[in-house]
Structure to design on (166 residues):
C-alpha cells in the first residue's frame, strides 16, 4: 500500500500544476524513481508530468542532465552544487516549467564523516530562473531515508508551484 502522505502531496502538486498549465520534470538519484512512481500513481498525471530522469551513476548525471565533471570531482555527487545542476539539467532536457532533483546517501553504507548516511541534497528550479537547494539529514533505514526524501521533494515542488508566476 502506498504512503498516504506521499499520495496526498502528489495529488496536491498535480492540482496546482494543472491549474497553471505547467509540466514537471524530475531528476532522481537516491530515490531511484520513487517520486516519479508516486506521481504516476495519480490518474491523469500525464497532463502535468513530462518526464523523470533516474541518474544513479555520475556518468548518467553527466550524460542525461549535463552535470559538470568538475562539480562531481570538487563537490561530489551528494552536494547542493550537483543537485542544482541536476535540477537545471532536467529543465534543459524537457518541456517542463519546474523541476526537482534529489541526490543523497540512503545507506546502509556509503556514508562518511562529512557526508553521513541519511544526508540528502535537493534542488528545485523553474523556467524563470528560480533555483534553490536544501540539504537535509534524515534518520532511519534505507527505505525511511528514501521515503522522507520523496516527501521533501514533493513538498518543495508544491511550495514552488504555488509561489511562482511564470
Amino acid at each position: 500500500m502506498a504512503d498516504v502522505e506521499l499520495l496526498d502531496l502528489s495529488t496536491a502538486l498535480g492540482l496546482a500544476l494543472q491549474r497553471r498549465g505547467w509540466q514537471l520534470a524530475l531528476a532522481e538519484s537516491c530515490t531511484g524513481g520513487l517520486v516519479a512512481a508516486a506521481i504516476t500513481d495519480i490518474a491523469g498525471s500525464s497532463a502535468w508530468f513530462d518526464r523523470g530522469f533516474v541518474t544513479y551513476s555520475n556518468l548518467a548525471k553527466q550524460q542525461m542532465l549535463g552535470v559538470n565533471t568538475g562539480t562531481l570531482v570538487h563537490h561530489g555527487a551528494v552536494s547542493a552544487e550537483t543537485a542544482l545542476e541536476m535540477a537545471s539539467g532536467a529543465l534543459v532536457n524537457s518541456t517542463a516549467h519546474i523541476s526537482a532533483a534529489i541526490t543523497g546517501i540512503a545507506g546502509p553504507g556509503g556514508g562518511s564523516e562529512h557526508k553521513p548516511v541519511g544526508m540528502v541534497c535537493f534542488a528545485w528550479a523553474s523556467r524563470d530562473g528560480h533555483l534553490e537547494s536544501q540539504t537535509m539529514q534524515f534518520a532511519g533505514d534505507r527505505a525511511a531515508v528514501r521515503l522522507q526524501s520523496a516527501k521533501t521533494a514533493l513538498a518543495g515542488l508544491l511550495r514552488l508551484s504555488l509561489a511562482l508566476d511564470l
